Amino acid sequence: MKTVRLNQETIASLLDDLLKRSPNSYGKYENAVAEIISNVRSKKDEALFAYTEKFDHAKITDKTVQVTQQEIDEAYERVEPALLEVIQKALVNIRSYHEKQKRQSWFCSDEKGTMLGQKILPLQRVGVYVPGGKAVYPSSVLMNVLPAKVAGVEKIIMTTPPGKDGSLNPSTLVAAKEAGVDTIYKVGGAQAIAALAYGTQSIPKVDKIVGPGNIFVALAKKAVYGQVGIDSIAGPSEILVLADDTANPRYVAADLLSQAEHDELASAILITTSEKLARQAKEQISEFLKVLSRREIIEKSLDHFGYILLADTMEEAIEAANAIASEHMEILTENPFEVMTKIRNAGAIFIGESSCEPLGDYFAGPNHVLPTNGTAKFFSPLGVDDFVKKSSVIYYSREALHEIHRDIIQFANCEQLTAHANSIAVRFEKEEKQ
């Protein structure tokens, strides 16, 4: 982990370094992804199953691509009852949090004969991508599916890559069933994204695709955006701990490592006003690394994208935190709520030493699908709004339109759009002639 004194130059250098992790920096894979999408779009199931055999080494056919009820029942038998109980508890918290995000259609009218409003409707069909292979993420299933269910999406389709024997992880299947997924398909990678975007004989086209994945999945989502909606182009995981001399260095170290273990491109940053804390946290990291199972991944992550930034003042530290706009931000300071009010850019904010990042990943309720790579400056966490669409509603009586029709005509003529002006004028041409 690199320890540097915080200033404008070091922040600029750090931001440039972090941007190297963005999926937009991996253009060398775009041609391969484009070829996969093109083949699935034209050859449909034939290409989909061929790519599944090539990349996942699983023979899938139109008879086996969809998960059966028997497979789901078997998954329940294989999942430990204690894990099922935890999934169900987390589900309640996540659903409850997202139910508070729901909004209703609204309309307003006045005595002049106008009625304006907004009609809010859930999307009809959504595709949820869930990573597979060595990774097992039942929490990701809950976080992507439950806001869609709360929004009222009519049909939720899930895709996830199968193992070599064509099976899926039982905890993933159980989480999907508990969350309310309608149909599950055993396909992954860019080919799954293409199938969801364009449809095949086995997999229907969806309106929007959500869910994390590797660089090929991220680039495929980017490529099909416009044909379908997407949630975001997610980059590697990030954590930023903002701390002063009151913070527990052991907690700080543990929390930084909780994200560094995700992959070699993950970023873990400590910004502190205390040189003593910086030194002690670094010592604790060394101690934890002796016992953690993903030590090799963590060490590479910290070597490349791990930083300890020493700030002269908390105001300077907060300014840097807002510039970085981390996916996860923990505030471990003497007055964390006061500091929180000054945080403008963060995907999720964790306040105080008992609110560590994994609490948000699994259980508290807020969504763990968060903006990365500085996009927290303009993007928000996944939520109910991502699964609805809005239509403006406009009604004017003839009397109401008559009152303002000349204003519209003048505006249209100003822009030299005479057909626009005419559309208004014809409604009153008889009156104008009188």
Automatic annotation (TrEMBL):
Q: GO MF terms on file?
A: histidinol dehydrogenase activity; NAD binding; zinc ion binding
Q: EC number(s) in its UniProt entry?
A: 1.1.1.23
UniProt KW NAD keyword: yes
- At the top level, the lineage of the source is Bacteria
The record lists the catalysed reaction(s) as: L-histidinol + 2 NAD(+) + H2O = L-histidine + 2 NADH + 3 H(+)
- The record lists substrate as bound by S237, Q259, H262, H328, D361, E415, H420
Q: Which residues bind Zn(2+)?
A: Q259, H262, D361, H420
Q: How is the cofactor bound?
A: Binds 1 zinc ion per subunit.
What are the record's GO terms for cellular component? cytosol
Record's keyword annotation contains Cell division: no
Instruction: Tell me the Gene3D superfamilies matching this sequence.
Output: 1.20.5.1300, Nitrogenase molybdenum iron protein domain
Query: By its UniProt entry, which Pfam families does this protein fall under?
Result: Histidinol_dh (PF00815)
Per its UniProt record, the required cofactor names are: Zn(2+)
* UniProt keyword annotations, A-Z: Amino-acid biosynthesis, Histidine biosynthesis, Metal-binding, NAD, Oxidoreductase, Zinc
Give me any GO biological process, just one.
L-histidine biosynthetic process
Under InterPro entries, the record lists:
Ald_DH/histidinol_DH, Histidinol_DH_CS, Histidinol_DH_monofunct, Hstdl_DH
The biological pathway it contributes to is: Amino-acid biosynthesis; L-histidine biosynthesis; L-histidine from 5-phospho-alpha-D-ribose 1-diphosphate: step 9/9
Q: Which family does it belong to?
A: Belongs to the histidinol dehydrogenase family.
HAMAP family, per database record: HisD
Q: Which PANTHER family match?
A: HISTIDINE BIOSYNTHESIS TRIFUNCTIONAL PROTEIN, HISTIDINOL DEHYDROGENASE HDH
Function of the molecule: Catalyzes the sequential NAD-dependent oxidations of L-histidinol to L-histidinaldehyde and then to L-histidine.
* NCBIfam families noted in UniProt: hisD (TIGR00069)
Listed name of the protein: Histidinol dehydrogenase
What organism, scientifically named, is this protein from? Blautia hydrogenotrophica (strain DSM 10507 / JCM 14656 / S5a33) (Ruminococcus hydrogenotrophicus)
